[in-house]
Specification:
20 helices, Putative cryptic C4-dicarboxylate transporter DcuD, 73% helix, single chain, mainly alpha
Length: 423
């Protein structure tokens, strides 16, 4: 039965890689595994338990805030403020593009959304500054994994929830982020240097003349500093309220509270209609339940099926023989599937839901192993030719997505290797 279960798992991920609906694949795979095990209720219980988990409050409030930032154009002010500053220093255009995108992706956690918001402004700016289109798009896409440091990141919240259920100390979302923050910053340095070297080797960092060059229509756009600060305000509040800092009261450690407060302040600053603000907040919350939470629920159903049929126990026993096996599986497994599927979510959630809770059995910390899979999956997505963010950047630059992927893949692989070493 284990072999049949293994085949179901393989076929599930093959279907995801072939771009079938991820939630459908995980849901069907989970229920099929549970049926084969003779314990259908295992999948049902996994489905129901996750539908009402504490993640719902966190994820929905974050996405509600994100919708308000878009509706009030605060995200546009933040992006334009950073990109204009970057254009004043041509020498750092390519490394600066990676860093700026990475920083913006922290408050704007969607890789595709960040690619659209930043890419629409920064890619044309890079091209006008002499950077070749493929390199300009690759530089922006290479920064779309900054969300690993965001309290709004799905996986950071998922790992925090597991740590709390395991009754581990220091299991808040900000504590989870602190575990891999330095390693992620070190990986960013590798990515920045790597992308810059690639541009130098291919001679694509300077000398390009855009035949369609026209005056920038956005030059007359007046950036409001206070509006530009609104998207990062909740993140600042969370950092200042963290135990290590302690500047703000403990109440500010609540992600939903900071998102609601940030939304209220944005309403005041932009003088927006409160009725429209409330509508957009709940529209974002509802959309996030259908997309982000829907994926988490289906992944939980899948991992429940794997547990029911005995695959989880078998994998754990194999990994107990070596720390390295678990770390390599968590990193390169998530990295490879993210490249093939265009999303780090399915592989990372499946690994973290199935293997990570048992990290102590093979000599690793739960948060440590979960973070390895999280960051590696994000790095893999940032060099995938089928990722939505890659397709967005390619469309803006009018090139093939594969041109972006082949410029980023070696750089991201090296960054993934560094993550394994540091964590």
């Amino acid at each position: 039965m284990l072999y049949i279960g293994g085949l179901v798992v393989v076929l599930t991920f093959v279907a995801i890689i072939k771009k079938y609906e991820t939630r459908l694949c995980l849901l069907l795979g989970g229920f099929l595994l549970a049926i084969l095990s003779g314990n259908l209720m295992a999948a049902v219980d996994g489905f129901v338990k996750t539908m009402t988990s504490s993640l719902v409050i966190t994820i929905c409030s974050i996405m509600g805030f994100a919708y308000i930032m878009k509706m009030t154009h605060c995200d546009e002010h933040m992006v334009k403020a950073l990109t204009r500053a970057l254009k004043k220093v041509p020498m750092v255009l390519i490394p600066g593009a990676v860093v700026v995108t990475w920083l913006i992706n922290i408050p704007l956690t969607s890789a595709a959304g960040c690619s659209a918001a930043v890419g629409a402004i920064l890619i044309p700016a890079l091209i006008k500054s002499g950077v070749y289109p493929a390199m300009a798009a690759a530089a922006v896409f290479a920064g779309t994994w900054g969300s690993v440091l965001s309290p709004g990141n799905t996986h950071n919240n998922f790992i925090s929830k597991m740590a709390m259920e395991a009754k581990l100390p220091n299991s808040s979302v900000m504590e989870v982020i602190s575990v891999h923050a330095l390693a992620s910053c070190a990986a960013l340095v590798v990515v920045v240097i790597g992308v810059t070297i690639v541009a130098k080797m291919l001679k694509e960092g300077t000398g390009y003349i855009d035949p369609n060059d026209t005056d920038d229509e956005d030059e007359n756009f007046k950036v409001s500093a206070i509006r530009a600060l609104m998207p990062v305000l909740p993140l600042v509040m969370l950092v200042l309220a963290a135990k290590q800092v302690g500047v703000l009261p403990e109440a500010f450690q609540s992600i939903p509270f900071t998102m609601i407060l940030g939304s209220a302040l944005a309403t005041l600053v932009t003088r927006s209609n409160p009725q429209e603000i409330v509508k957009d907040f709940w529209r974002g919350a509802g959309d996030s339940y259908g997309s982000v939470m829907g994926l988490i629920i289906c992944a939980a159903t899948f991992t429940a099926g794997m547990t029911a049929i005995g695959l989880t126990g078998t994998l754990i026993e194999l990994m107990k023989q070596s720390q390295g096996v678990a770390k390599i599986a968590g990193a390169f497994g998530s990295f490879a599937i993210a490249i093939l599927a265009g999303s780090g979510d399915a592989a990372t959630l499946a690994f973290n839901g199935t293997i990570t809770p048992h990290a102590a059995d093979f000599g690793l910390g739960l948060i440590q192993l979960g973070s390895i899979s999280n960051v590696a999956g994000a790095l893999g997505r940032s060099c995938s030719p089928v990722a939505a963010g890659c397709i967005v950047c390619a469309g803006i630059a009018n090139i093939s997505p594969m041109e972006i992927a082949k410029r980023n893949i070696v750089v991201m692989f090296l960054a993934c290797c560094l993550i394994i070493t540091l964590l």
